[in-house]
Specification:
about 220 residues, 6-stranded mixed β-sheet, single chain
């Protein structure tokens, strides 16, 4: 496997981050959560000489898929998301395939793994790039905080498990790419988050509820 390149772009008025992931050897590329300003995302792809073959979704809240229909139509790419998110995704794109926890997909000579991380929504997926080690977390984990658990289908216990066992168990040098620019820096490392982020320091349901001021 070869290293993939990741470019992060802030788009729209809600401080969303989207990522373009590409294999420099083959030119195959993926978009993650094409929310807004799809033309900018596609311009980056074009400037690199890449071709989008895959669109990856962390979840299907409106602010993460507002541009999915445009991106899917422009690229013809296959959309991949957790099975419980497929129905919503198919209202925006014709080619949607489910991907399960721990499944990997090839992007050129690189590899991306789906990590099912429920809590914010039942079907949240974090996308783990194996080389260089990076995780795209959507609304599961931000730099210095995490996503909310007050939405339909949110689950505090599942969120704690996702943060502690699944995200927190990755190599500490893993670079974090969150879904929104809500922290002091656009990206960070898992080592920094484990030391500083109260969402990860809250290592029990009770501690997490206290952090989020949940009754």
């Amino acid at each position: 496997m070869s290293a993939l390149e990741i470019e992060q772009l802030e788009v729209g008025l809600l401080q969303n981050f989207c990522e373009v992931i590409g294999c420099p050897q083959t030119g195959q590329a993926a978009l993650v959560d094409p929310a807004f300003e799809v033309d900018r995302l596609l311009r980056v792809v074009s400037e690199r000489g890449w071709t989008v073959t895959t669109i990856l979704l962390t979840h299907t809240h409106d602010d993460h898929i507002a541009g999915l229909d445009e991106a899917a139509q422009a690229t013809g790419a296959v959309v991949r998301c957790h099975p419980v998110e497929v129905e919503v995704a198919r209202t925006q794109a014709p080619r949607v395939e489910p991907i399960g926890d721990g499944e990997s997909l090839a992007l050129g000579h690189g590899e991306i793994q789906a990590i099912h991380t429920p809590g914010h929504t039942p079907g949240c997926v974090c996308w783990f790039v194996t080389d260089p080690a990076a995780i795209i977390t959507g609304d599961v984990l931000f730099v210095g905080s995490c996503g909310g658990v007050s939405y339909q289908g949110s689950d505090v216990a599942a969120m704690v498990d996702s943060l502690q066992r699944k995200v927190g168990g990755l190599p500490e040098h893993t670079r974090l790419y969150p879904g929104h620019d809500y922290g002091p820096t656009p990206t960070s490392t898992l080592a920094w988050e484990l030391a500083k982020n109260p969402a990860l320091l809250a290592d029990s349901v009770e501690a997490f509820r206290a952090y989020k001021n949940l009754r």
